[in-house]
Amino acid sequence: MTVFWLHGEELMFGGNAVHPVQQRIPQMKMMKVHIPFTFKLHETSNSSYSDLRCTISSQVPYTLQAFWGVSIRELHHFLWKAWSSFQTAVKDDSLLRGHYQHCGLTLHETSHTEKTIQMFMPEGKLDLGTPPRHCYPLVIFLIRDTPENSTLHPDETVALVNVVHIRDNVCTLPTNILAQYLKQANGQLSSLKQLYLATGNALSYQDDACSDDASQRAVVLDNGGGSLNTSQEQLCVVCQYYPLSRALLPCRHTCICASCFGKLETCPMCRSPIKSYFCVRNEDYLADCALGLEKTGASAKRQAFSQWIQNSITEFLGLH
């Protein structure tokens, strides 16, 4: 058996056949991060500059600050600053000072379950510029309140920054959350992205906002386990037996199990090539899967040997 590389593809030559070797799809490194905040927009069809409703929950005391007409450049410059800069800006009431057109709602809250908050822009107009715009319509900060001289774990979430687009006559895209950024106590900034489940339910994960390579790092949020094939399990769309456990990248469909993953090169939902993946739950069911494959492999070997005997006898007798 000889193995060659041809235009980046590994090929095996044996006998008269040439067999391309399937490249191993890399697994993304991952860790788990707890986010104490949730932020959701209400029905977007009725949202406007005069009436925007959102639902917020928090497990920690926090400060909410909203700003209208925020400079895109200056916002991203500020987001990369250290956590201490966030704390100082909130304490001095200087958050994004000079880089927004209107200051909106400010709230100081303790921990609470889901609460609906209504926002509206103060009187005046926004100059967002012509597309591509130089300002975001609305930016909402949820910043964790920490006592003086307190120490947080470096991986603790300290702020959730929500960038909201509001439909207008110039940009008629529906009102929606354009982006969400997560700030950790160690200064790490990450962009939250949604995973697409086959059932239509939503999970979330974040990737490193400063990385151009999506396979570098991922953080799974609300990662759940569970026993195999229970009524709460969401099953693999391919085999409909094992629970789905892998999120595919770059399409972000979460729809297959570990067993079927090794048989696929494209996403079964959208057919886009699978470049990398990460696990959204434990894969303890793999032991059962491996046992099943072992039994299937032994059966296949017996069938192949039986077929070889039949072919040899047929050839010997000249009956072919």
From TrEMBL:
InterPro entries: CGRF1, Znf_RING, Znf_RING/FYVE/PHD. Keywords: Metal-binding, Zinc, Zinc-finger. One of its GO terms (molecular function) is zinc ion binding. The keyword Zinc-finger applies. Gene3D superfamilies: Zinc/RING finger domain, C3HC4 (zinc finger) (3.30.40.10). One of its GO terms (biological process) is negative regulation of cell growth. Residues 236-271 form the RING-type domain. SUPFAM superfamilies: RING/U-box. This is RING-type domain-containing protein. It comes from Acyrthosiphon pisum (Pea aphid).
